[in-house]
């Protein structure tokens, strides 16, 4: 653990910078909320309060046991690394690039596999889209998402470099949860922008499962999941949670999965409800229908 602490100490400045950005973002959340309330543009105070409550619990979990699980999980995989990435001025930029590519596939998996969607749907479940939506992160995130970053460890990045890469990717995304920034021209095809991310949060048929990128949107353009904003966005999920209770928001889809598995007519159908795409039904397969939209 002493070696791990020394590895993280090397990048203390990065963590301090993201911490300062985090405080600035929290100020932006409060400022935007006050502005929206003053102008009568905040549809539901309940959504904002739910987002804040979820964020407080998430922060406590990620800085205690859950954060330890994330780090220890990557640490266990370290002896299996097939390469070792040498340290240099370029190490962190490359780690961020690889983390961003990894994030794309993790994010896509979270939309295409129902077990992971149960976790990620928390972030999508709000019918509103503002800075506070960025805080609406599942309490299960740190317990699950570390698995997707094992490939970075196997490629030779240290635990600290992998975590730094992910932190930068996640920190970037805070500012894009807003309707107050319009389209940004040619940047829309390169970076994840507010317009690009509004599409990602849309439940419109043409917007579902699009724009998975973290910082760069070029991954979506490469793998056929890019969609520009061309019509007003209907935020949320197609089967609304209809609750401001943080417990319900965090665990409703897990209970839905359990219900479907309990009533499955075969074990293969039960496994299907766990690992097939969200909205998949056994009867859809039997009738030759496509999975229903979530």
Structural class based on helices, strands and sheet pairing:
mainly alpha
Q: Largest sheet, if any?
A: none
Task: Give me the strand/helix succession.
Answer: HHHHHHHHHHHHHH
Q: Please tell me how large the radius of gyration is.
A: 20 Å
N-to-C CA distance: 43 Å
* pLDDT < 50 stretches: 287-293
Q: Indicate the overall shape.
A: globular
Amount of helix = 55-70%
Mean pLDDT: 91
Tell me the strand percentage band. Answer: under 5%
Helices, by number, come to 14
Number of strands: 0
What does this structure look like?
- The protein has 294 residues and is mainly alpha-helical.
- The chain has 14 helices and no strands.
- The termini are far apart.
- The model is unreliable at 287-293 (pLDDT under 50).
Short description:
By secondary structure, this protein is mainly alpha-helical. It has helices at 2-10, 12-38, 45-62, 65-77, 91-112, 114-124, 141-144, 150-154, 159-172, 194-200, 218-223, 246-262, 267-275, 282-287.
What's the SSE blueprint?
Layout: H1 2-10, H2 12-38, H3 45-62, H4 65-77, H5 91-112, H6 114-124, H7 141-144, H8 150-154, H9 159-172, H10 194-200, H11 218-223, H12 246-262, H13 267-275, H14 282-287
């Amino acid at each position: 653990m002493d070696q791990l602490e020394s590895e993280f100490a090397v990048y203390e400045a990065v963590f301090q910078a993201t911490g300062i950005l985090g405080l600035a973002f929290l100020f932006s959340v409060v400022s935007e909320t006050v502005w929206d309330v003053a102008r009568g543009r905040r549809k539901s105070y309940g959504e904002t309060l739910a987002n804040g409550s979820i964020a407080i619990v998430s922060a406590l979990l990620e800085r205690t046991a859950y954060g330890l699980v994330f780090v220890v999980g990557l640490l266990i995989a370290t002896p299996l690394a097939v390469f070792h990435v040498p340290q240099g001025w370029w190490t962190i930029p490359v780690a961020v690039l690889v983390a961003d590519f990894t994030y794309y596939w993790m994010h896509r998996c979270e939309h295409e596999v129902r077990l992971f969607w149960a976790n990620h749907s928390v972030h999508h479940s709000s019918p509103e889209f503002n800075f506070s939506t960025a805080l609406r992160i599942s309490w299960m995130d740190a317990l699950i998402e570390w698995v997707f970053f094992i490939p970075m460890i196997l490629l030779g990045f240290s635990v600290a470099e992998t975590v730094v890469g992910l932190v930068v990717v996640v920190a970037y995304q805070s500012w894009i949860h807003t309707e107050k920034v319009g389209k940004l021209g040619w940047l829309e095809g390169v970076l994840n922008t507010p317009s690009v991310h509004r599409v990602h949060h849309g439940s419109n048929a043409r917007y579902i499962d699009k724009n998975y990128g973290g910082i760069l949107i070029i991954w979506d353009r490469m793998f056929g999941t890019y969609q520009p904003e061309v019509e007003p966005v209907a935020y949320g999920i197609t089967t609304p949670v209809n609750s401001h209770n943080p417990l319900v928001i965090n665990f409703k889809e897990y209970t839905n999965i359990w219900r479907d598995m309990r009533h499955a007519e075969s074990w293969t159908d039960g496994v299907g409800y766990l690992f097939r795409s969200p909205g998949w039904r056994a009867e859809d397969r039997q009738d030759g229908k496509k999975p229903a939209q979530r």
